[in-house]
UniProtKB/TrEMBL annotation:
<dbReference type="GO" id="GO:0009279">
    <property type="term" value="C:cell outer membrane"/>
</dbReference>
<dbReference type="InterPro" id="IPR006665">
    <property type="entry name" value="OmpA-like"/>
</dbReference>
<feature type="region of interest" description="Disordered">
    <location>
        <begin position="133"/>
        <end position="164"/>
    </location>
</feature>
<feature type="signal peptide">
    <location>
        <begin position="1"/>
        <end position="18"/>
    </location>
</feature>
<protein>
    <submittedName>
        <fullName>Outer membrane protein P6</fullName>
    </submittedName>
</protein>
<keyword id="KW-0998">Cell outer membrane</keyword>
<dbReference type="InterPro" id="IPR036737">
    <property type="entry name" value="OmpA-like_sf"/>
</dbReference>
<feature type="domain" description="OmpA-like">
    <location>
        <begin position="49"/>
        <end position="164"/>
    </location>
</feature>
<feature type="compositionally biased region" description="Basic and acidic residues">
    <location>
        <begin position="138"/>
        <end position="164"/>
    </location>
</feature>
<dbReference type="InterPro" id="IPR050330">
    <property type="entry name" value="Bact_OuterMem_StrucFunc"/>
</dbReference>
<dbReference type="InterPro" id="IPR006664">
    <property type="entry name" value="OMP_bac"/>
</dbReference>
<dbReference type="Pfam" id="PF00691">
    <property type="entry name" value="OmpA"/>
</dbReference>
<keyword id="KW-0732">Signal</keyword>
<keyword id="KW-0472">Membrane</keyword>
Length: 164
């Protein structure tokens, strides 16, 4: 019993001698934006890179010995003209091409007529002269090196090559 009384006395002495806890300064909470006020920026996608606009299609194809675009391609040319009209700082090089059949001189002239024809349509649709240049590569830059109808059809084209 003496041990219990002695233990109780020691415990009360230790408790009485304990130092008072220091007051703790209140912690300021860092400001946190309310989830309803956070604005997330959306990266603006250039319509030229957006597959939904159709402007990612930049080649027009022709029948053999023809320098007029197909009716099916006219809306595409109109879309590019509208884009250029609303983006006056953008420039595009119209690259006329031909397949390997025919003389080099003939193919250069045909490819130039193809590029110039697209240029005229772009100008009519709202593009400015300073935005457009046309060049003929004739048969010099084939996209397809096959020597058959499929390869030749792929090489009869005008490419719209936008400057970066």
């Amino acid at each position: 019993m003496k041990k219990i009384a002695l233990s109780g006395l020691l415990l009360s002495l230790l408790t009485a001698c304990a130092s008072q806890p220091k007051p703790v300064a209140p912690v300021e909470k860092a400001p946190v934006a309310d989830a309803t006020t956070v604005k997330v920026g959306t990266a603006e996608i250039d319509p030229l890179d957006d597959p939904k606009t159709g402007l990612t299609y930049r080649s027009l194809y022709y029948a053999l010995d023809v320098d007029v675009i197909q009716d099916a391609d006219k809306p595409l040319v109109a879309a590019h003209a509208k884009y250029l009209g609303s983006h006056p700082a953008r420039t595009v090089r119209l690259e006329g091409n031909a397949d390997e059949r025919g003389s080099n001189e003939y193919n250069l002239a045909l490819a130039q007529r193809r590029a110039d024809g697209v240029k005229k349509l772009l100008l009519l649709g709202g593009a400015k002269e300073g935005q457009l240049t046309s060049v003929s590569y004739g048969e010099e830059k084939p996209r397809n090196t096959s020597h058959d109808e499929d390869g030749w059809a792929e090489n009869r084209r005008t490419d719209l090559n936008y400057a970066k």
